[in-house]
Design a protein that fits this description.
Layout (H helix, E strand, L loop, with lengths): L3 H49 L1
């Protein structure tokens, strides 16, 4: 039982790591959607400019 406090600390850090990873994934998805939207808008502008030429 001398390892009991160590196990609690390791589990605590694992739970924190899982929470941080999930938050990072959510933020990354939001950023990716924003970039995709900007890129899509830019592609529309480029296509309309090519038609005008």
């Amino acid at each position: 039982m001398e390892y009991f406090p160590g196990i609690i600390v390791v589990l605590f850090f694992c739970v924190i790591a899982i929470i941080v990873t999930r938050m990072f994934i959510k933020v990354s998805k939001k950023e990716q959607e924003k970039i995709d939207k900007q890129y899509g808008d830019q592609m529309k502008v480029n296509q309309s400019n090519q038609r005008d030429d």
